[in-house]
Amino acid sequence: MILETLMNSIILMAILMAVGYYLRSKSILNDDAENSLSFILVNITIPAMVIKAMYIKFSFEQVKTGVSLLGIAIIFHIILVALGNLGTIGTKDEEKKKMFKFTVPMMNCGFMGFPLVNQLYGNGAMFYATMFQTPNIILMWTYGMAIMIGKDKGKSNVKDILLNPGMIGIYVGLFLYITQIKLPMFATNLMDLLNNVTTVLAMIIIGSKIKTMGVRESLVNRQAYYATFFRLVLSPLIMILIFKFINFEPMIEQIFVIYAALPVATLMPILAQRYGSDGVFGSKIVVITHLFSLVTIPLFFWLYTVI
Question: Tens digits of per-residue pLDDT, 271-285?
Fold first, then answer.
């Protein structure tokens, strides 16, 4: 049943991505419009989704599970960082090395992970999704930024690491979870409304970005497929293997497998371009991973259920 729901969600996302692609191809969406939608998504709807996820009844058992999941997520990301470095052995192009090292551990948790999990399991499951996303956000703005900037170009901004919208949403959500403060009805209704538009905005933006980056040129890049293999195949396989030794509630394990199978963060080529790295190659990886993830996410979800 859940696999059927996942397939329906993937088809829905594919349709919305196609809408974004079409709007961009007809110049209905341009850079300014896409940036505006991205701003709304990153700064308003996703933080609202995080806060809503933690606006639940406090439970010591849930906290215990959350801490355990946070530990698993941290270990998992460390493994991916190591794989990303091992995978670049023998690669002479330093800029492509950067893109590869970024691709392996950095998932599109916000634009694709949160909306997908929310569709599948509802708001109650978002607490566990946040346990996976938190290390990913921190890693993005520390290790990820260090990759893009380079050793001799400076250091990542502490404000970007600790005070980005996603982390602020986590702080507010944790505060509400621990204090159990009751919000007025208009506030909870507002968060519900913002949650409902997140998937639509996220997929339209991704579709628009795919059009901008170019599908044909991306699909013929052999090196981009190598990076895609690590992101979309090895990553979920490792997560499935982890849960063969550590047992959690099936829903929680499914969420983590889905997150492990997500495409690379769409922020990668933007950061690459900003700091003088190979943004073109990064764009190709973004296109390939997002298109192929529409197949690999349900594939590895199914594999998890049968192994």
Answer: 787 777 788 888 899
Q: Output phi, psi for 107, to 5 deg.
A: -100, 160
Question: What pLDDT does 151 receive?
Answer: 57
Q: Assign a CATH topology to domain 2-302.
A: Na+/H+ antiporter like fold (1.20.1530)
Confidence of residue 243 (pLDDT cuts 50, 70, 90): very high
**What pLDDT is recorded for position 158?**
66
SS (H, E, C) 64-76: HHHHHHHHHHHHH
pTM: 0.86
Residue 49's pLDDT band (cuts 50, 70, 90):
confident
